[in-house]
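Students often ask why we bother encoding 3D structure as a string. The short answer is that it lets us treat folding as translation between two languages. Here is a chain of 186 residues written in the first language.
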Amino acid sequence: MRAYYYDNRDGEPTLLHDSGIEVDAAVLKAMGVLYWSIPADPEGKWQEKIGKISREREYKNRDVIESSRSTLGEKLDDAMAMVWKEHMHDDEEIRYTLTGSAYFDVRELPADNWIRIHVHDGDLLVLPAGIYHRFSLDSEESVKMMRLFKDEPKWVAHYRGPETDANPRRKEYLTTFARSEAVSVA
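And here it is in the second language, the structure alphabet:
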């Protein structure tokens, strides 16, 4: 995983958009974004580690999704447009990258800058409920991810706007993670 400030320049979301300013994992953690590096191994110990984290964090269900031109065909563009639009969820978003790579962009608190997180094989990322974020494939345009869920698998996006700003999960996120000492370096 590599995190940095998004450069906000025009161009496809699949481009690097690297501002050159790195973001430390401690900054992400202060925003409620959690990360583990769990490389796949032939002995299957990665599955044990995912299982342990799942038990500790009460993830009861999982599935596997693959996003690529070969798996989605013409539907890929529509699917990527939907997840590129800034949104939040009422539940955590938990993703373990099995193969490939992709970007998760999260809104920094309190500055509201985009932080780009580039995930690769073996990266487990947890976005807290209520955080504004978006997703994009990178230039390889192929990723296979395990999604983990606390309850039944679901994916409901609340797109950013006044109604979503008033969402109880958004307000809870802000109360929990908006800290006056958080300072943007962008």
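Translate back mentally: The chain has one domain: 2-177. Keep this in mind for the problem set.
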